[in-house]
Amino acid sequence: MPEDTEAIAALLDAAYDPELVGPTAVSDALQRLGATDDAATALAERVGRAQRELSRLRRREHELTALFSSARELAELRDSDAVLARLVQRAREMMGVDLAYLSEFDTDSRELRVRETSGSVSASFQTLRVPPGRGLASVVVESRTAHWVADYTAYAADRHDAGIDDAVSAEGLVSLLGVPMLTSDDVLGVLFVANREKKSFSPDEVALLSAVADHASVILQTTQTLRDLQLSEDASRRTLESLTAHLVERDRANTVHQELVQAVLAGGGFGPVAETLASALGRAVAIIDAQENVIAAAGLPLSPGMLSLDEPVRDALAESRRHGHCVPVAGSGVRAVSALTAGSRHFGALLLGDGDFELGAVDLRTIERAAQVGALLELQQEAASGADHRVRSELIADILDDVPERRADVERRARRLGVDLAALDSLLVLAVAGDQQTPAARAVMRQLDDRVLVGEYRGFVVAAYSGGRGEVQPDRLRTQVASAIQGSVAVVVPPPAKGPLPAAFLAARRTARLLAALELIDLTAHVEDFLPYSAVLDTDAHGLSSFLRDTIGAVRQYDAERNADLIGTLRAFVRNNASPTRTARALNFHTNTILQRLDRLDHVLGADWRDDERMFRLGIAVRLDELRERLQGGKG
């Protein structure tokens, strides 16, 4: 009997492992030990139930262990993609299936996108997108409950999609189980397991996969929360950086404004404005006038683009002039331009070069304020210059009017201006358009010594100077003044030291009026060259034009209509003392040819044109006409 007892104990120990001893083996063993058939069968069934429960508990232990591991990884979440991949792998292992995958739901497109797979062999399946309303996945999303099919090919036809069917076929999948990943409000995705053979999924398997799906939901939610927190942090950081930069710009602007005010009050001109901006903004600054000449600079060296403006900079300057704002520029070594304007008047511009930081909105407004300060300085200087110009013009008028009763007062005012009246022995008279006389006078002042007396008098700009102080170059002065006022300038030079200044001015004025009558508006003329004509013809443009028309107008008309040159013959005839022979010799023609042309002149001018009085008038007319033609041709 002891042997029987040991055998029964061994049998019962083995019965705990269903792979070693089944219920039938237990029943047979008990019958051999003398147990009745009914008792053996009943005991065998109890052993079978115990074996099944033990197997279930072992499987449950394995599943719980896997879920605990997943929960621990979830608690230590660092890389959400890695945790999701591990979770999908565990789902496949726990469920004992061929494939497991997780599809994430896109709330905007309503699509499901495969994000993680385990056991997949098809590249197309790993990037599968499930359209709305298609496949088993859409049923899970719509119902928010688990669904499974033992044979996907027999699934509802209206749910099939060619792309999904191709991916499922490429993997060889037959049965699928999908459970939703849920939050209180939304569907985050679907967790799937699949077999390549037919399989029916039990409620325990559905519950197990649902538990895993809950973990996946937490991971996705946590990932989204972390992403939102990161975006919020990035937005907060950008806001803080923007606020900090704005405060730095504002402080910089306040400093610049204070220094600009001090610069204006100190009367330092444009230099302090450029230095203040260059120091505050850390870049080169140039201030140019209306002719694009640099009048102040700081933060040297200046880039070549600031010394010679290219087309983009000029376009930006034109835009700034239109609306008064600072305009950013790309390239050319110039980064910003702000025009110096006051109403419709333009005085120049501020040019800003490269720096270590980009100019912000507050910086651009600061540059605009500096440009406004520059315009105010220009107006201030213009007002002071205007007052000085009026004083000098009044002094010029008193000198050239030569009123003895005011002589003492004239000398006192000249001394106040630092001008020695006794040394003034030379004049320059400039004829310019009426609205350009004041700018022209200022341009002359900039080019000549400040002890030269320059002012406006009787419609002209007059410069009185000492001939012994150094040679004045009239042609160069005319070019410089014409460039400054962007207009035509005629300079008349009377002979120096040959009489009082009032007489020199009268001679120059007669010459200037003669030039205007001849429509010569851009040249340098010496009074001696025009003296024979200006002394006789002190007239206006209308009178001189009438004189020329009445004397030689018919000859000019004859030449224009017949493409002839009777005017050339008339000029040579006058210059050669009305001698046909000398005229023929001068023109290299036969005398008979000249006589024929003189006959034509008889028909054009009348038979009495060679009389003394008419010949005198014709002589003056042809010489003036020839002089005008020569000067207009640039030979004067």
Automatic annotation (TrEMBL):
Keyword Coiled coil part of the UniProt annotation: yes
Residue stretches spanning the membrane: none
Signal peptide: none
Keyword Coiled coil annotated: yes
Residues in GAF domain copies: 79-230
Assigned keywords, A-Z: Coiled coil
Superkingdom of the organism of origin: Bacteria
Coiled-coil annotated spans: 40-67
Record Gene3D superfamilies: 3.30.450.40, PucR C-terminal helix-turn-helix domain (1.10.10.2840)
Protein name: GAF domain-containing protein
Native organism: Microbacterium sp. A8/3-1
